[in-house]
Write a structure and sequence with these properties.
single chain; mainly beta; 46% strand; globular
Amino acid sequence: MNKILSIIAFLLLSISAGAQNLDSLLNEMTGDDDITTYAEATFKTQRIVNSQSIENSNKHELTFLISHHFGDISTGIEDLYGLDYSVIRFGFEYGLSDYITLGVGRGSYEKVYDGFVKIKLLRQSSGQRNMPVSVSLFSGLDAVSAGFPYPERDNLLSSRFSYSHQLLIARKFSERLSLQISPTLIHNNLVKTKQMPNDNYYIGMGGRFKLTKRTSVNAEYFAPITKTYKQNETELLALGFDIETGGHVFQLYFTNAVGLVERQFISEVTLKWPRNIHFGFNISRVFSFKK
């Protein structure tokens, strides 16, 4: 697995270097060195599929996000291929500026409350200011309000909290293709045994390929870097289809994740493709509070 990830990272860096050389050549030919052009809409929304994308809410804009994961489609027609069961999350994401987004949400799985901040550090650009990638920092927490999973232990309020930190690095290679790499740290205040580490590291990769002006196909993959000692843990894989309809963006997808916050869909995946997968969707709507 580490060899595969290394090869993928090398290929992405090679492509990025080639794209930089091409940008420089085009600027020399067209005389655009005095103009800075920024990449727009690397991804269509703030999510690739389950996970965070490089995109932020714009200044004084509020994004309302509804996410659904239905049951395992392998249950068959009796449960309408999983549609009889679902978990849901409602979230609000507000742009304090074009570079800082604050978000809060509530998910039905484990009755989780979550909050996060996402800060854009670098923005992909060419011309007078040449920056090959966009980079954002994501930092979030979630609190389980359901009963403690190990009631026989001396559980504290802090036992309910987990933390997620990600560095989001993305490049829009063309009008159609965007890719992102997401090194991730998940910290759990409460773990099952002393042998299990509180900190676990993951590497995520995601991409978007634009089909038409309003549609695209998306994919994401997360794999553990460190040994987590979690029983039956496996990699996250999700494949989706985005549809933009005016002020809404619909994301329809299949995934092997159940939960809807980073800890759940990155570090607690136990279902494997293609045996156990779930249908899901995101609906996002943007409201502007600009004067």
